[in-house]
Amino acid sequence: MHKLLRFYSQNRIKVWTTVFAIVFIILVIQILNNATKKEKNNTNKGETAFNVVSYHNESESIITEGSVPQIYQKEFGNIIDEFYTYCINHEPQKAYELLAPDTKQVLYQTESQFENLYYRDIFEGDKEYTFQSWSNSSEDIYIYQVKIFDNMLATGKNNNEYVEDYVTIVPVDDHYKLNINGYIGRKSVSQKESNELITVEVVNIDSYTEHEIYTFRIKNNTDKAILLDANRKTNTTYVTDEEGNKFTSFLYEIASQDLTFKAKEQKTIKIKFNRAYHNEIEATSVNFTDIVDVDEYNQNESIESYKIKIEI
Description:
The protein is an alpha+beta fold. 30% of the residues lie in helices and 33% in strands. It has 8 helices and 14 strands. The strands form 3 sheets. Strands 8, 9, 10, 11, 13 and 14 form a 6-stranded antiparallel sheet that branches. A hairpin with a 5-residue loop joins β1 and β2.
């Protein structure tokens, strides 16, 4: 005991210096560990550091000339990053809140539908993503291409295979939200035409990157059953654009009874057309050129058809 006291008395400065050094090292290690944990937790919660990125390279458009205006680049990049980070971190309920109203109305009316029809099929496992501006137009429609692939470091798989999606930035009040799954948006039309058989109103058009879906409100003006398209040819129901191009319908996707209208019947139907999105060329009309009276058609399939054209 006396030897320890003597040693302490003779080496007091060295002892306390060593103690302070050890305490300091322990504190530094704890601070670094806490910072690492906090960073990991923030990442798991979808809080990324992407806000400091300019997104300049991601804003160069692939299809159209030029790029996303600089004033939008950061905000658009942030919303895309936020949505896909939530999906990758398996927080679909938070991702769903970033969807635009049209996407919720047209594609995913509930969070459950979003999870079952979009999220689960794409984000199972450990994923990564990249995005690039696809096109932008004078109408301020900004579309981005997104590629979702396996995290190579986590899964050991190469990332040559990926799921491709297209998202559109949509203004909602004073901020932005997303249309996803190739959906661009809805245009209200409310244009109608009538003839002796039928009245056809184009209610709205839902545009996707690869096609358009038209909603029609149709009324049979007669006391007989009417068939909207006898389907005697493949190009009798079509959309035209301002350059004179014709885009045929996917009527084979619709049951015959849905195209048949009983006496005085009115109903709403949707028809898909193979018109891919074009940011500069507008559609000009919808044409039904093979409308027939059902009774007459059943007696003679070669009867002359009725036609109707709706300007849009």
